[in-house]
Write a structure and sequence with these properties.
10 helices, seven-stranded parallel sheet, alpha/beta, globular
């Protein structure tokens, strides 16, 4: 055969090898994902507080995505009522041939040892057959702390609360890790915008805070939030080394675009309630940037738990299922543009 024929056959053989290689990589990736994702009986996640808008958004998002969610809350509080209202609306709207969302509320307060111990016992007793622990615990409990009067409450709820959560639920996380190599993950809200060492007299959010609270009170609020956030960050790093031999991974979720006041804010009542819908907007939807709107039965008021966009919620779910999770993930509200990421295009002053 002439050289052109050999060249044509070589090109065809190379193309065939590329197609076969791509198909094999696709099949291997599918097998890997199937191994990483938890089985139906091991998808229990505890969100320690749905009294915060962030906790309610995370709990409803994961429940809508098929996870079995246990939602910690104050007895009879707004978070418990909104979570139950969301569940009722979604169960009623779920087709018969599909699995309805699974979300159960549980009285829990990270500042009270007795409620934490009781919650851990209740979870262990009511786990499905064959399941010996929880896949993950996401600690959304805490307070932002406004003014010096909230120093003790912020440190007790955020820092000491983080340690209490680890002590109470580490056995359940370790038991799940023993059953599944990628289970047993403990999540904390890490650093927020409060940890930035900038003058409160400047522009932006800090300047607005100074104007609304007064410079002195704003400084005190910023100090409380920063102390609590750095304390949680340090506690998580120490717990990571302590719990790793037991198979428990400690992961920090940094929120650089949010303040602690926003992270721990309760669900907000909308100023202009919309008409009740047959199925509230899912927080996993890209509509409205991952919003979560809940209408209370018998009330005209509608509440919003929109804190994170859908992209940030997907980052959280990736952290739940990654074979080797990172020590920290960033839940950003907006991503940097290609222009700001290229140093060569920045103009110096």
């Amino acid at each position: 055969m002439d050289p052109l024929t050999w060249l044509s056959l070589g090109l065809q053989l190379a193309a065939l090898c590329c197609i076969v290689g791509a198909l094999l990589l696709y099949l291997l990736r599918k097998v890997r994902v199937a191994e990483v994702l938890p089985t139906d009986g091991a998808k229990t996640v505890l969100v320690t507080s749905v009294d915060t808008a962030l906790g309610l958004q995370i709990a409803t998002y994961l429940s809508d995505r098929g996870w079995r969610v246990i939602a910690g809350c104050r007895s009879g509080g707004l978070g418990a009522r909104l979570a139950e209202s969301w569940l009722q609306a979604h169960v009623a709207a779920t087709p018969e041939d599909q699995q309805p969302p699974r979300l159960a509320t549980l009285e829990l307060d990270v500042a009270r040892e007795d409620l934490l111990e009781e919650a851990a016992r209740a979870i262990a007793q009511h786990l499905p057959a064959g399941e010996h622990g929880v896949w993950a615990v996401i600690n959304t409990a805490g307070c932002g702390g406004r003014g010096a009067a909230r120093w003790e409450a912020a440190l007790r709820g955020n820092v000491l609360g983080a340690l209490r959560v680890a002590r109470s639920f580490a056995p359940l996380l370790a038991a799940a890790a023993a059953d599944h190599p990628h289970a047993g993950r403990l999540f904390y809200i890490g650093l927020t915008s409060d940890t930035a060492c900038e003058s409160l007299s400047g522009a932006g959010q800090a300047g607005q805070l100074a104007q609304s609270l007064g410079v002195l009170e704003a400084c005190e609020a910023g100090a409380v939030c920063a102390a609590a956030r750095w304390g949680t960050w340090g506690a998580a790093r120490a717990l990571r080394a302590t719990l790793r031999p037991r198979g428990v991974r400690v992961v920090l979720l940094h929120a650089p675009d949010l303040s602690a006041l926003e992270v721990y804010a309760p669900p907000a009542q909308l100023s202009a309630p919309s008409q009740p819908a047959s199925r509230p907007v899912s927080p996993g939807s890209d509509i409205s940037g991952g919003s979560c709107a809940v209408t209370m039965p018998g009330e005209a008021a509608e509440y919003s738990a929109r804190v994170l966009p859908a992209a940030a919620l997907r980052v959280l779910e990736d952290a739940l299922t990654a074979p080797q999770p990172k020590d920290s993930y960033y839940l950003k509200l907006k991503h940097d543009s290609w222009f700001t990421r290229m140093p060569s295009l920045r103009v110096g002053h």
